[in-house]
Design brief:
By secondary structure, the protein is an alpha/beta fold. It is built from six helices and 15 strands.
Length: about 240
């Protein structure tokens, strides 16, 4: 996993590198590039180059928020984490879909949890399901799946880019994808909690505008998972 750290203070770059390294599952799982300014990062940046970018907000010249806007224009998927000494900047991260804001004076256990969550989010987004659109078989990233349902003895995947069929049973997918925030909508479908925009009574409104209806047996669990997921991203 390739990670960029951009901060104008060397001590924070070293700290973040050391703390991320301590989270490795195996030696050299993470590689790092270091930058002192937003312009320096942008000059080396390209789509897909980094899994995670950790940005200091209060940098001279191009600050972290401004840098992130340029990054988002190039790469829609890269995970962005802001480092800051002030909570007042947190609300501005919605515009660039920052994954987390980490306060530099935050308790160490909370700070480490944010880093670990970012790693998990990357691996969650890089899992995929093999499926077919009728002409060819493709790898469908799990984060692109909005929901899936049983249809004509197959599993129909509704994704951000269209519909695909795959083999297997709903119970098998439920077991495989539960850790990736997929849960039962009703007896014949699973919804991706990460692609829910909001919930109104038993209506599940997805990020693409589609509306699904959750069964009475599952709506409470869906609401709880959605609340937990939303809090984890912005707490």
């Amino acid at each position: 996993m390739h990670i960029a750290i951009c901060d104008d203070e060397e001590k924070f770059i070293t700290k973040v590198k050391d703390d991320l390294t301590s989270l490795q599952s195996y030696e050299n799982e993470f590689t790092f590039d270091e930058f002192r300014t937003g312009r320096e990062l942008l000059s080396e940046f390209s789509e897909g180059k980094y899994a995670i970018i950790i940005l200091d907000i209060e940098m001279k010249g191009l600050n972290g928020l401004e840098t992130a806007e340029f990054l988002r224009d190039i790469d829609d998927k890269v995970i962005i984490i802001f480092l800051t000494s002030y909570e007042k900047f947190a609300c501005q991260g919605y515009e660039v879909r920052a994954f987390r804001f980490i306060l530099k004076n935050q308790p160490h256990s909370i700070y480490m949890k944010h880093l670990a969550d970012a790693i998990h989010e990357y691996y969650r987004n890089t899992r995929y399901v093999m499926a077919s659109d009728g002409d060819k078989e493709e790898k469908i990233p799990t984060d692109n799946i909005l929901y899936m349902e049983v249809f004509s003895h197959k599993i129909l995947l509704h994704t951000k880019n269209g519909d695909y069929f795959t083999k297997g049973t709903l119970s098998e997918f439920e077991a495989q994808l539960s850790e990736l925030m997929f849960t039962r909508l009703d007896k014949s479908s699973l919804v991706n909690i990460a692609n829910i925009d909001y919930i109104r009574k038993n209506e599940i409104i997805l990020t693409n505008g589609d509306t699904l209806f959750a069964s009475r047996n599952h709506i409470k669990n869906i609401k709880q998972l959605f609340m937990d997921y939303s809090r984890s991203r912005w707490s």
